[in-house]
Amino acid sequence: MKIILKKADFTDIEFLFYLRNIPQYYKYYTHPRPVEWEEHINWIMPILLEVDKRDLYIIMADDIKAGQIRIDYTADMAEISVALVEHFRGKNIASMALEKAIEKAKKENKVKTFRAHVHQNNIASQKLFEKLGYQIEMQDGAWIKYVKNV
Ligand SMILES: CC(C)(COP(=O)(O)OP(=O)(O)OC[C@H]1O[C@@H](n2cnc3c(N)ncnc32)[C@H](O)[C@@H]1OP(=O)(O)O)[C@@H](O)C(=O)NCCC(=O)NCCS
Questions:
Q1: What residues does each domain of the chain span?
Q2: Which atom in ligand 1 lies closest to the alpha carbon of residue 24?
């Protein structure tokens, strides 16, 4: 399967809205509730217009939209999150896509430290980051904070 990262654009707004509002997914997010269309638009516009300092990629698997990766930048590190459409899970796609995203972030933004915050009940995500060599830095309430220096 050919995995490509495509920078998100205006044609991806509905796909990203769909992914954000899957109940089995958002129960593990910082805001564990669905978002309204208007809220989604307010969130996504500054990213698409490149006002917000984030990278937002669509994971393309054989030219089909399979998921998304988001990287939020702060001073010297980047926080990464990922989600796949159910049908594309269990195929190593998230690992391949994350490695590509991290390579890009390293090259383009000179980031050396990546973090991911994962809910303690989100086993799939914990397994993914652990497989990629992320270490547990600390646990803060229900959140496991992973870190990797690259
Ligand atoms: C996180 C995510 C991208 C990982 O996708 P993936 O790499 O294809 O992995 P899977 O979802 O198939 O699961 C990963 C592993 O967890 C295991 N797993 C999944 N759900 C599980 C559960 N409820 N209990 C135990 N193990 C579970 C899988 O069997 C798999 O194990 P393996 O690596 O030993 O084969 C995907 O699960 C997803 O989109 N989740 C919803 C969004 C999300 O929570 N993102 C994380 C925010 S940082």
A1: 3-149
A2: 41
CATH of 3-149, one of 3.30.572.10, 3.40.50.720, 3.40.50.2020, 3.40.630.30: 3.40.630.30
pLDDT tens for 85-129 read 999 999 999 999 999 999 999 999 889 999 999 999 999 999 999
Ligand 1 pocket: which residues have CB below 6 Å? 25, 28, 81-84, 89-90, 93-95, 116, 118, 122-125, 127-128
pTM exceeding the 0.90 threshold for the entire prediction: yes
pLDDT given at position 56? 97
* Alpha carbon separation from 16 to 1, 32, 137, 145 (Å, rounded): 22, 16, 29, 24
For atom 38 of ligand 1, the residue with the nearest CA is 83
Please identify, by atom number, the ligand 1 atom nearest to the C-alpha of residue 122.
Answer: 44
Contact present, 58 and 12 (Cβ < 8 Å): yes
